[in-house]
Amino acid sequence: MYAIVESGGKQYKVEKGETLLVDRLPIKEGEKVDLRAVMFRDADVVTDGAELEKVKVEATISEHLRGPKIRVFKYKAKKGYRRRAGHRSELTRVEITELRKLSRKPAAKKAEPKAEAKAEPAEKPAARKTGTTRKTGTTRKTTAKKGTAGKTPARKASTRKTSGSSSTRKGSSSGS
Question: I need a surface site. Which of 8, 37, 53, 117 has the fewest CB within 10 A?
């Protein structure tokens, strides 16, 4: 009898009484934790899909520890580029205490009512679109024409003068 369980985005094959190292779990040492089963096999029967709600995989947290130091060294020849870094994984040792398939689905846990409702933040005042200007005291009004929202104004035609007429350009003959 064994199960495939998921912890920290990784899957592990476990049997009763086995210990395994998983990524750090936010649970104190000695406490029990239920691991999520992905697959369960008992004799010749394989359980997966909706039936997995009946599978119970319980484990006890043995200890929290750190993995071996991994040294990283980046180097590029003839460029003077060297980078050194290190990393140690935060791990939890878990001991599987119970592994079985229940005869019926476990009861759903009741949701606890929230003690205090969060106060909604005050709304910011809307931007002023009409009103008086500070310097002149005159009233301003913003209006938008239909269909012009988001469009840029058209450019005026260029009124540059060209240098000289077409007959004085290079390569053209003027009859001389």
Answer: 117
Parallel/antiparallel/unpaired status of strands 131-132 and 81-87: unpaired
Mean pLDDT for the stretch of residues 1-20: 95
Contacts of 85 (CB under 8 A, 6+ apart): 71, 72, 73
Q: How far apart are CA 34 and CA 56, in angstroms?
A: 7
Q: Between the CA of residue 44 and those of 38, 41, 79, 119, what are the distances in Å?
A: 17, 7, 61, 56
Q: Is 175 left (phi over 0), alpha (psi -120 to 50) or beta?
A: left
Strand pairing category for 55-66 and 90-101: antiparallel
Strands (E) across 77-111 are located at 81-87, 90-101
CB burial of 62-91 (b: ≥16 within 10 Å; e: otherwise) equals eeeeeeeeeeeeeeeeeeeeeeeeeeeeeb
The rounded distance, in Å, linking the Cα atoms of 40 and 50 is: 12
Distance between CA 90 and CA 94 in Å, rounded? Answer: 13
Q: How far apart are CA 129 and CA 140, in angstroms?
A: 8
The pTM of the full predicted model, rounded to 2 decimals, is: 0.55
pLDDT (tens digit per residue) in 140-169: 665 555 655 556 666 666 666 666 555 555
Q: Which residue has the tokens 């750190």?
A: 66
